[in-house]
């Protein structure tokens, strides 16, 4: 009999089904994603981890409708992206998805407040006052709102970028190595903010990271290797994540060694 606690139904905020993404042609072909299926749950903080080149950024871009797959489908909520017209896609990118980049990508000539409000200004929308206050207080930048990016620390700039991603109350926020350019103290500020946005404000967030400590702020870690999902973990701790990464690495090295043996067998004609 199924255990009731383990079969709690979760609402899916985003879904990828058998995603393939190939760059280049013939000998130059790179399979960045090689059949990725993943459900991202509403109100959860999900981490995506994996070695460099394993397809993490490609997956983020496809889920956020910033790029299109070679095959497979992506859903945001119940909407399958390939069914949308260009106009509907533009609207979805604007209203339903937030993105945080490693390099902050703030507009240098605008103040923190103007940067945060920029997506809404472009859409001709005004922020919901209560939500605006909640985001600004959560991000802890009320006394910095009039500062330009070059007058703020890296951690503060990235928190501005996070607030900008959250201000329109998107269905889901994607963050690609948001702490990659930050020292550990600034990184912790950003991670605490993201975690609080999920726990207290109910925001759904997917974050790419290669740092086990960063991953430990999340509810669930999905591991990628060579363009595939190879493992996942709930309630991660830095130690558990590090151990799992080690196991994945060892498996990859064993597989590579085995492949080498096969090649040696073919090329060497056996000893
Ligand atoms: P990660 O974010 O995990 O480091 P990426 O998703 O950036 O990995 O890349 C996955 C693979 O696809 C890598 O081999 C990378 O070199 C390749 N790749 C990514 N983007 C492009 C591109 N625009 N053109 C060609 N190859 C790409
Ligand atoms: Mg990347």
Q: Going across the biggest sheet, name each strand in turn.
A: 6-7-8-3-9-10
CATH class: Alpha Beta
Poorly predicted runs: 1-5, 265-271
Number of helices: 8
**What is the average of the pLDDT values?**
90
Taken as a percent bin, the fraction of beta residues is 15-25%
Structural class: alpha/beta
Largest sheet features: 6 strands, mixed
Q: What string gives the helices and strands in order?
A: EEEHEEHEHHHEHEHEEH
| Range of helix content | 25-40%
- CATH superfamily placement: P-loop containing nucleotide triphosphate hydrolases
List the domain count as a whole number: 1
Ligands and ions found: adenosine-5'-diphosphate, magnesium ion
How many angstroms does the end-to-end distance come to?
Answer: 55 Å
Task: Characterise the protein shown here.
The chain has 271 residues and is of the alpha/beta class. It has a single domain, classed as Rossmann fold (3-Layer(aba) Sandwich). Helix content is 39%, strand content 23%. The protein has 8 helices and 10 strands. Strands 6-7-8-3-9-10 form a 6-stranded mixed beta sheet, sandwiched between helices. Strands 2-1-4-5 form a 4-stranded antiparallel beta sheet, covered by helices on one side. Residues 1-5 and 265-271 have low confidence and may be disordered. Residues 23-24, 30, 32, 50, 52-58 line the site of adenosine-5'-diphosphate.
